[in-house]
# Entry
Amino acid sequence: MAINAVTIPQWGMEMSDGTITAWLIDEGAMVAAGDEIAEIETTKIANVLESPFSGRLRRIVEPAGKTVPSGGLIGIVADDADADSDIDAFVAGFAVRAAEAGETNPETSTFLDLGVGRVHVVRHPGDGPAALLIHGFGADTSTWMFNMTALGAQFDVVALDLPGHGQSAKALGPDPVATLVDAVSQTAAELGIARAHLVGHSLGALCAVRLAQANPDLIASLTLLAPAGVGPRIDDAFLQGFVAAERRKELRGVLEMLVSDPDAVTLKMVNDVLRYRRLEGVGEALAALRAALQAMPQDDALAALKDIDCPKQIVWGRDDRVIPPGDGADLDGAPVHLIEGAGHLVHMEKAAEVNRQIVRLAGI
Amino acid sequence: MPRKTIRQVITETLAAEMRRDPTVIVMGEDIVGGTGSKGQLDAWGGPFGTTKGLIAEFGPERVIDTPISEAGFIGAATGAALTGLRPVAELMFSDFFGVCFDQIYNQAAKLRYMFGGRAVTPLTIRTRYGAGTRSASQHSQSPYSVFTHVPGLKVVIPTSAYDMKGLLTQAIRDDDPVVVFEHKKMYDVEDDVPDDSYTIPFGEANITHEGDDVTIVAIGRMVLFANEAAAKLEREGIGCTVVDPRTTSPLDEDTIIECVEDTGRLVVVDEANPRCSVATDIAALVASKAFRALKAPIELVTAPHTPVPYAPDLEDAYIPSPEKIAAAVRRVMEDG
# Structure
């Protein structure tokens, strides 16, 4: 017998609960592990929950519309052989067992004092090889909220706030992009990471290519998500709006450019960007990065990509309006995976698919 | 992100600004010693513990315990501001403004104007408001509308630890007199607050809840109650947008009007007395500038026009509650 609990996941350190916006399958239906079974809305963005188990959805414990704490029971996947009375007992005892187990989020948040200044690092420790996650322009480690836990099952996952971002130091020096790249390599060195699977998003992908070029021994594989520097430029309307949009409505419009489904942009996402932009030094840092991006050749990273000799891939949302994808043809030896129904934040909107691609490329 | 209480954030912000700018000083009654401390230094950090630890780092020249004379030390702070310092004066309870209002109303607020812009008055007055502490009618009022009425004063009412840091930092760095209202019941309210410095511009409202049906504009502590009501109403299928103006002078009129244009209904919540108040001011603003967007009459949820009662049951009944706010929202929904 196998009675399995479907629970509200812990997506990122900030998440405390999730709201079930819809069940995607009916009670009593068969599911396979990996099937999308429910839509969960967090304060930041909505995501799809995949069934961790195969079997029958014997019970929907919490209906659509309910808000449930992370770790809370929302459904039961079990074999047909399991008696209803056993399932009732499992449901009744779940909260007590969970409290006794006292499971906590394994993610840790630390600060490193590096050559580039203070760097904030979030780590999901694991036994597998290291994976280094590099966020894009104006983002921070929270952009990986739907990736950290899933990748944590396979990798020792390390994400950092790049200089000028999140809780890291804000000064970028005369060559801002070089400072970002230095921050990643200094973080790896400080944590004793000699070899890592690199995942970069947008501007972070450009940094990943530069790092791989400068330090080929460090890179085990290279996944570039909606990368800057391989063709189309980051839409300057986005950069400009992100830096300068004054009214909340205006900023929301800018952030809607990031996603395929504009409804995915929540009040918290808008408020988080406003909070970030108010920090001392952020205005200068973002302006310097925007100028650096405009000044560099638009295919700055493309030539380098050719010479990087490790498994590599590019993942792009079909609806990306910030850096529009091409036709899906390989780019200098790197296969391009176009993902439907995703915009620039492909790793948030289609997290499970992106996570699978990262694991597959790493050959785990 | 570190969690901090409003109390912690006030001390941290004062210390950070004092380190950053040697002209910043703090002064007020009991802010070093504290009532009943027999002259002991840093006993309490003031009646609510907001200045504890400052004397040790900055010394008696910059952390000044004043005589119990608001007229004296608010006047001295105004003069200090006019002549090159950046004082943060603590008026222990805003109820005491009556004895020092000439210094605020006729002096601090007017100086830049009367000197043709050739003088600035970078004075911050931190003060306390609000009922609910069983402190009777002379220590429980919410008189921010009186200050909002005065041209030349800026009036700030932070409702979270995050906002307190950004708004208090802005107040201290601002070249005009700013009055910052702290609710006595909110010092232990916690929030994620960055260690790095930041400012929140005055005149930029916050939106703390989003919904399509009703706009609730709430002042000070009432923002917390409005959020509670909005969460409850959401489960009933009524969507509320909660607007926290954050500063009543300047007032972010655009955000209030935009939200009313989106929802078509307005409830204003204010703990202060209702006549000539911030609540009536906001209602008048919407009635004159967004009347055609309204589907129902504006509802006001305020205290009654009486002093704050001392009897606990009466005091509880006096303060607007999440239940009263929810009832007003249901009324505007039924009305149109």
Summary: The two ends of chain B are 43 Å apart (CA to CA). Residues 6-20 of chain B form the longest helix (15 residues). Chain B touches chain A through 17 residues (CB under 8 Å). Chain B has a mean pLDDT of 95.
